[in-house]
Design a protein that fits this description.
Layout lengths: L24 H10 L11 H4 L8 H12 L4 H8 L3 H8 L7 H11 L8
Helix pairs in contact: 4-5
């Protein structure tokens, strides 16, 4: 079982939109990149990138992802939470709703906010 570690705070992100002379566009992009900004003009919404996931599947996908991120098997998560492994499998596959109380139990064990499972 992996030890729980202190969560690192993520930096806030900001999107910027400017208008100005077109001959300064490349200079502006270069200056912003030197400050850590990235160009997102070619980005697409994640729902367009993963059309195979509908809203009913998202809590289970989030659960499986959080569990994997922590390096836990379903059985290991079951031991940590007291939730039967079979139920965890059913939740990950969208066959069993997670519910608020179980979401809180799972979130605590997986070091995430419980709302990601709702």
């Amino acid at each position: 079982m992996q030890a729980h570690t202190k969560k690192l705070r993520t930096k806030s992100l900001v999107a910027l939109h400017f208008t100005g002379p077109s001959d300064n566009k490349e200079k502006a992009i270069k200056a912003l990149r030197s400050l850590g900004f990235t160009d997102t003009l070619d980005s697409i919404p994640w729902r367009d990138a993963f059309p195979e996931y509908d809203d009913n599947m998202l809590p289970g996908v989030a659960l499986a992802g959080a569990r994997t991120k922590e390096g836990l098997t379903q059985q290991g998560l079951s031991r940590l939470t007291g939730i039967p492994q079979r139920h965890i499998s059913e939740m990950e596959n969208g066959k069993r709703p997670i519910g608020k109380e179980r979401a809180k139990i799972l979130a605590k064990a997986l070091n995430v906010g419980y709302k990601v499972f709702l």
